[in-house]
């Protein structure tokens, strides 16, 4: 069959769009998404998904009810355009809540922006403030979009890894720390912004007051904006305290605080339709009916179950102080299993993750995806699990345990 001229043109255009040449120059060299490849593999092998933060318990009823009332209720205007920077009821609820938390009376109409997810807020903050050539300090491990958006804005990502300061078996996310010298060395006259994520994804580290103070001092000295990604602010376990950078002396003017309603209410698909639920939660905060408090307690149990399970098969969990991810060192296990270690095949953790997908039908994330190319080796001994996923925790953990035990049995037969 002879191709029509339109057919050829269409194919050529399609091909061009699938090659990196069509991307803007500032995006060249962006790392290929390992996530995409693993998602494809997941479609093929259909593993138990222990990497994605999609809980399979029902959404809180007080929120679903509020949404259904809003969309089917008598005020038909609720289904129409709203104020672009945030629905008035939502920004008022946010102002009421965060004025107290930040110790600053927030003007709901001037100091709050509602975006489509925390992702949208990161996009707005970085695109609005970064000029080509500005440097943005990003802490590793990082949520990948920090790098992509920085590059889209023409900025230059400058990486500072958190360093693990203990080697004993049961480590905590608190053992991953910022080296003040390393941080100091990255602030230059080109630095415009630093991005801090606390509680941290995926480590679950909750930055301490002294770490935030240290960063704050550099921000003030160099007049640098601090973007605080506090997506997991309501998921901090008992041993730790969430400190808000904007409350530190002299940091109000330099801080943009970002939260996520989707993560707060386990409704990551809803993004912004959440104001009414927020009002209800403000009323019952710190009472036995508090949904957020109850969730922390339930998830802390899941965290401990998952940690036990990982330890029982020879991995070393990094006990998170917040969030719903747990990172585990598999190096003792990895040495025994039959990975086809070959640089061409990618980092060790990536190969281990693929091995788990294929052999144990377990979906996890390799940890090195949270590092830049030069620092990938720092994450290579770890994989990352999400422990929010199942309401019936015991059931899934026993399945996971069986599955990981099979890995253990396999290791024993393989040595
Ligand atoms: C650290 C971090 N920041 C931001 C986001 C994006 O949150 P949202 O779903 O509200 O866009 C995520 C989502 O996984 C995250 O883990």
Automatic annotation (TrEMBL):
Gene3D superfamilies: Aspartate Aminotransferase, domain 1, Type I PLP-dependent aspartate aminotransferase-like (Major domain)
Enzyme class: transferase
Lineage: superkingdom: Eukaryota
Xref: SUPFAM superfamilies: PLP-dependent transferases (SSF53383)
Pathway: Amino-acid degradation; L-kynurenine degradation; kynurenate from L-kynurenine: step 1/2
Annotated ranges, domain Aminotransferase class I/classII large: 47-274
Keywords in alphabetical order: Aminotransferase, Pyridoxal phosphate, Transferase
Protein name as catalogued: kynurenine--oxoglutarate transaminase
Species of the source: Limulus polyphemus
Source taxonomy: Eukaryota, Metazoa, Ecdysozoa, Arthropoda, Chelicerata
UniProt gene name: LOC106468475
